[in-house]
C-alpha cells in the first residue's frame, strides 16, 4: 500500500463512517412524497440464503420456507403501498441474500411491479446452483433482463475456504452452469472477488481468463474483498487475514489481463460489448429501497429499513413502510455523493452536474483540485473522467464506503437483539457512543 493509499484510506474511513451514522425516525416520519414527473429505480431486498458465507456482511439470514413466504407477502404489500403513495418505477434491482431462493415468490413479486408500472429493465442476483433451466426460464419470463451470479472465485481451494464449494458448487460445476446461462439474458454478470486471503496472482489470472476468454461472459465485476467488524473473526478462522497491501497490485493485474473486447463501465465492472453497469447507484441518483435492510436515497436523505424481519412484517401489516432510520446529507455532501457515484461510473458530465447543483464546481473546487493534482481525474471535453490511476483510487474509495455501510449493518443487526417484544414501533437501543456526532470535517 503506498503512502497515498494510506492517507486516502484514513480520510475516507472517517468520512464514510460519518455518512452512515443514521438516526432513528420518529413514529410520524415516513418516506417523502415522490416527484410526480419522475420514474424511480426500485431496489428490493430478499435477505435469505441457504448457507451464510463467512466473508459476507450483507443483510442475510438462514432460509426458512415459512419465514420467506411471509416476507415475500409483506414485500408485495409494501410495493402496493409505495404505488398508492404515488411512486412509479422504470427499473428494478433485486439484491440479497439470494433473491431466487423461492423462484415462484420472486416471479409473483416482479409481476406485481410490472402490473403497477411500466418497467424497462430488471436485474436479479443469484448463486451458481440456481442456474438451472427451470429457474432461468421462470425469471426470464418474468422480465428479468440481467442476471448477476455470485461466482466469487473459480478456485476450488478458495471456494472451500469460503464455505461455498458444497452448497453453491465446485469451479467445474459453476463453469458448466455459466456456459448454459450465457445468452439466456440480455446481460449475464459474473461477480468475482479479488484479494481473498490465499488468492495467488496465478489463481486470479486464471479466473480472469476463464470468465473473459474461455466463457466470454457478457459482464464481469471484480470486487475487492470487503469486510465488516462482525465478519472479521469468522473470516480469520476460515479464510485467513485480509492484506489490503496487495489490493492495488491485484487490481492492476486484472486491468492488464482483461481482453481488449471488455470495456470498463465502472471502476470494477467490465462489459463484453454493451455498456450496462452493475451498480444501480451510478445510473440513478435517487432510488427507493423496499424490504428489510434496504437503503433508499431520496431528496438528499439516505433511509434505511429495519433489519428485523419481525419488525418489518409488523410495520407493513400496520400499513407503514419498513424504513426506520435516516441520514440527511449536508449541502456539500450531496454534491460529493453525486461526484462519487458519477466518477465511480468513470465520467462526470460537467454541464449535467452544474444544472443539477448550481455552483457544483465552485463548491467542490478543493476536492477536484486534489483529484487533478494526484492524477486521478482529467478533463475530456465536457466531462471529468477517471484515469487508470483514478480507477484504482475509486476502488479504495468504494471499498471504504461499502465497508462503512457494512459496519452500519452490523450495528443494526446487533440492535435487533435488543428488540423489545412489544407491539407498535420498534425500540432499538443503539450504543450512544456509536451515534456521536462526527468530529470536525
Ligand atoms: S455471499 Fe451471497 S450467498 Fe453468501 S451469504 Fe452473502 S448473499 Fe448469501
Structure description:
By secondary structure, the chain is an alpha/beta fold. It has a domain at 35-283: pyruvate-formate lyase- activating enzyme. 44% of the residues lie in helices and 19% in strands. α2 packs across α12. The longest helix has 29 residues, at 388-416. The protein binds iron/sulfur cluster (SF4). The site of iron/sulfur cluster has 11 residues, from loops.
The residue ranges in which pLDDT falls below 50 over 5 or more consecutive positions are 418-441
Secondary-structure-derived class: alpha/beta
> What share of residues are in beta strands?
15-25%
**Arithmetic mean pLDDT:** 88
Count of helical regions: 17
Number of strands: 18
List the defining traits of the structure above.
disordered C terminus; binds iron/sulfur cluster; 4-stranded antiparallel beta sheet; 441 residues; pyruvate-formate lyase- activating enzyme; single chain; 19% strand; 9-stranded mixed beta sheet
Amino acid at each position: 500500500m503506498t503512502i497515498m493509499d494510506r492517507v486516502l484510506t484514513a480520510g475516507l474511513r472517517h468520512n464514510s463512517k460519518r455518512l452512515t451514522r443514521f438516526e432513528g425516525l420518529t413514529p410520524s416520519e415516513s418516506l417523502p412524497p415522490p416527484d410526480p414527473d419522475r420514474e424511480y429505480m426500485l431496489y428490493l431486498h430478499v435477505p435469505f440464503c441457504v448457507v451464510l458465507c463467512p466473508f459476507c456482511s450483507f443483510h442475510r439470514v438462514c432460509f426458512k420456507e415459512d419465514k420467506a413466504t411471509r416476507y415475500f407477502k409483506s414485500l408485495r404489500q409494501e410495493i402496493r403501498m409505495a404505488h398508492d403513495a404515488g411512486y412509479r418505477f422504470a427499473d428494478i434491482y433485486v439484491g440479497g441474500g439470494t433473491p431466487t431462493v423461492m423462484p415462484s415468490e420472486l416471479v409473483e413479486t416482479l409481476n406485481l411491479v410490472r402490473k403497477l408500472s411500466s418497467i424497462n429493465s430488471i436485474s436479479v442476483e443469484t448463486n451458481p446452483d440456481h442456474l438451472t433451466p427451470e429457474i432461468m426460464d421462470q425469471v426470464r419470463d418474468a422480465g428479468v433482463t440481467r442476471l448477476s451470479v455470485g461466482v466469487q472465485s473459480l478456485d476450488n481451494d478458495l471456494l472451500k475456504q469460503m464455505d461455498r464449494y458444497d452448497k453453491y458448487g465446485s469451479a467445474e460445476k459453476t463453469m458448466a452452469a455459466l456456459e448454459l446461462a450465457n445468452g439466456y439474458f440480455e446481460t449475464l454478470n459474473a461477480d468475482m472477488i479479488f484479494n481473498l486471503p490465499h488468492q495467488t496472482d496465478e489463481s486470479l489470472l486464471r479466473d480472469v481468463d476463464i470468465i473473459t476468454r474461455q466463457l466470454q461472459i457478457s459482464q464481469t465485476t471484480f470486487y475487492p474483498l470487503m469486510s465488516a467488524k462482525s465478519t472479521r473473526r469468522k473470516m480469520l478462522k476460515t479464510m485467513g487475514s485480509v492484506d489490503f497491501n496487495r489490493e492495488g497490485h491485484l487490481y492492476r493485474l486484472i486491468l492488464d489481463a482483461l481482453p481488449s473486447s471488455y470495456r470498463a463501465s465502472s471502476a470494477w465492472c467490465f462489459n463484453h460489448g454493451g455498456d450496462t453497469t452493475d451498480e444501480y447507484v451510478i445510473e440513478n441518483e435517487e432510488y427507493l429501497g423496499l424490504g428489510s435492510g434496504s437503503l433508499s436515497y431520496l431528496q438528499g436523505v439516505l433511509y434505511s429499513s429495519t433489519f428485523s424481519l419481525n419488525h418489518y412484517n409488523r410495520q407493513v401489516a400496520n400499513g407503514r413502510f419498513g424504513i426506520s432510520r435516516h441520514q440527511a446529507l449536508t449541502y456539500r455532501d450531496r454534491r460529493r455523493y453525486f461526484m462519487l457515484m458519477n466518477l465511480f461510473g468513470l465520467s462526470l458530465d460537467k454541464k449535467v452536474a452544474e444544472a443539477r447543483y448550481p455552483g457544483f464546481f465552485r463548491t467542490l473546487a478543493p476536492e477536484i483540485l486534489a483529484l487533478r493534482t494526484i492524477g486521478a481525474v482529467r478533463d475530456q471535453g465536457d466531462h471529468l473522467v477517471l484515469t487508470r490511476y483514478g480507477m484504482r483510487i475509486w476502488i479504495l474509495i468504494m471499498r471504504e464506503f461499502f465497508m462503512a455501510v457494512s459496519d452500519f449493518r452490523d450495528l443494526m443487526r446487533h440492535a435487533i437483539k435488543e428488540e423489545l417484544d412489544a407491539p407498535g414501533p420498534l425500540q432499538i437501543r443503539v450504543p450512544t457512543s456509536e451515534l456521536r456526532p462526527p468530529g470536525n470535517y
